[in-house]
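Sequence in, structure out. Go.
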Amino acid sequence: MPKDSTLAVHGGEERRKAHDSVTTPIICSATYAFRDTAEIVRYFEGHLEREEYGRYGNPTVRAAERKIAALEGAEDCALFASGMAAVTTALFELLKSGDHVILTSDCYRRTRQFVRTFLSRFGVSHTLVEPGDSAALAAAVQPGKTRLIVSESPTNPYLRVADLRALAKVRDRFPSVNVLIDSTFATPVNQRSLELGADLSLQSCTKYLAGHNDVLAGAISGRAPLIAAIRDLRGVLGGVLDPHAAYLLTRGLKTLSLRVERHNRTALQIAQWLESHRRVRRVFYPGLPSHPDHGIAREQMKGFGGVVSFLVEGGLREASRFVDACNLATIAPSLGAVETLIEQPALMSYFELTSEERAAIGIHDNLIRLAVGIEDPEDLIGDLAQAFDASYGASSRQG
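Output:
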């Protein structure tokens, strides 16, 4: 099987493309013509693979789907207008009234919100379990009712790594249950969730897969029957990806392996540097032996990703002063692009909560999340060093 860097360039690509183009053309048509009525009949009878209407498919989008499927090692992939459009459509397809879903307590907060706030209106119940507790996970399964286990790996913001093989073992005891893993932080380069036992892999392509902070997109990959059903519902709900975004996503995918390798190396170097800094209270990065899931990460990941979270000395004010002092790192949400981004989760994602409410769910006021870009690691470390000096004084240097 080709390596990741080869799949990123050639995976899912047609050898000859329209008008002899080397790159996949942007096909902006909203509707597609048939030669005659006989062709319509052949198409609806399933004897002809082609496009009909833009909400049901697009050649540029299909090309990006094939490439992501190749990278994930999946039978098929469906693309959406955002990561949330992907996961909500999948959950609507896989769950019905009376069903039960299990969520790990640290999976993406908007996914938890959708299940707890919206799916509950339709009679779908849920259970939250702590990450890494296989016994609690197995105990949470309600035979005949539980249809889905949803987790994220690594998680945001503490980079917890789920033991995907353990999740699959629990699933194997209950044939009606599927496992959906949000693999956004890992990418298919660092972690093949499907090969590790997941039934479905979710990617917010807005992050690493597109990689340039200029695209909103989401993908679900997995077995062909599951993806076909999710794709059919996409045609009803309408959360389709536009062809220009699909083109930009495909362009980003071609350098995915190169970028992720750089993210991995730089983030590990920065995490090691931060761990030795006197103004840093704790660093969360699965590539460090101090991380609680370091052993699992080493077993199931090829690299540890580009996000480093850490606690600085002091509270909200000190953390804000440090963030404001950074010059190369841009204050912004999201991750996975060529630019390094920095944020305080207490202000960016949990601003509406009090300090006490944030602390109760593990979001500390002095927590900083650094999404490492592809800049030179020495320059990034130099920027962090001057930010410590500017915000804490020259005495903040290592020692």
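Check: The first strand starts at residue 76 and ends at 80. The radius of gyration is 22 Å.
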